[in-house]
Amino acid sequence: MDIRIGIINSARELNFESSQTAAEIQALVAKAVDSDAKYFSLADDKGSLYLVPVASFGYIEIGAETPRRVGFVA
């Protein structure tokens, strides 16, 4: 799953691949935004952990769960 996170007042964005499902990611972010949490964390496929401060969280784009098609379609 391709994840792209926008940070307020930053021209760059976090972009990584995760093995979590879209529903898991959506629930985790919604819980962090609705609560008094200072940050939320997501892990990528390589084991790296990303901590995103809720106060500067801009947006999150969650890619499609279907794998990309390779080759030509007739």
From TrEMBL:
Name the domain of life this protein comes from: Bacteria
Top-level taxonomy? Bacteria, Bacillati, Actinomycetota, Actinomycetes, Micrococcales
Q: Know the name of this protein? A: DUF3107 domain-containing protein
